[in-house]
Specification:
CATH superfamily of the largest domain: HAD superfamily/HAD-like
Distance between the termini: 11 Å
Number of helices: 7
Strand content: 5-15%
CATH topology of the largest domain: Rossmann fold
Number of domains: 2
Radius of gyration: 16 Å
Helix content: 25-40%
CATH class of the largest domain: Alpha Beta
Strand order of the largest sheet: 3-2-1-4-5-6
Number of strands: 6
Structural class: alpha/beta
Length: about 190
């Protein structure tokens, strides 16, 4: 049975999840197309220290209220019947309860959830021997694809449009990801 490594934020959750919180806290009107880099502070004038202090405080509210991407639940539910689902996130262990509650609220099934507290997911993906990975952060996708020589499906956003190696497959929706998986990891 194939095992998939799946990022949570911006992959399972909508990449716009943070924006309403940022707009309210910093009195901005940012939309996803304004976010051209993964570093959100590049999109508007804000002191980085102030931003990260705010983020640490707002993190539980943001994670608890992040909407799930369109079709993600339906597709992940179907995949769970045929594949092992390992959610590997840069969230820290401090977000464990919030994350587990969110999965329960969304009624999302999983085999394993690992919150590693950093964006370096290569080692965790290697340890869990995932056969494919799903990501929204460009450099993570490239690193995982090249280091582990596995396919990484990169969910397209304005902040991840740099060139990618052959192991990284750009998808625009969960339906597109599902089609790719059905072609490359067929079930019996």
């Amino acid at each position: 049975m194939a095992r998939f490594g799946i990022d949570i934020d911006g992959t399972v959750t909508c990449p716009t999840s943070l924006l309403p919180h940022i707009n309210q806290a910093f009195n901005t009107n940012l939309v996803l197309d304004d976010i051209k880099e993964y570093d959100l502070t590049a999109a508007f004038p804000v002191d980085r220290t102030k931003f990260y202090t705010w983020f640490k405080e707002a993190e539980p509210i943001i994670y608890a209220n992040s909407p799930i991407q369109e079709n993600a639940k339906r597709i992940l539910d179907e995949w769970k019947k045929h594949y092992e689902l390992y959610f590997i996130s840069a969230r820290g262990e401090n977000a464990t309860d919030i994350t587990l509650d969110w999965f329960k609220q969304q009624e999302l099934q999983y085999d394993h959830i690992e919150l590693i507290g950093s964006h370096n997911k290569v080692e965790t993906a290697r340890i869990h021997q995932v056969d494919a990975f799903f990501e929204d952060k460009h450099d993570n996708a490239v690193e995982i694809g090249e280091e582990l020589d596995i396919p990484v499906l990169l969910f397209d956003t304005p902040y991840n449009r740099s060139a990618t190696p052959k192991q990284v497959i750009r998808v625009h929706s969960w339906q597109e990801a599902d089609e790719w998986i059905r072609n490359h990891f067929p079930t019996k």
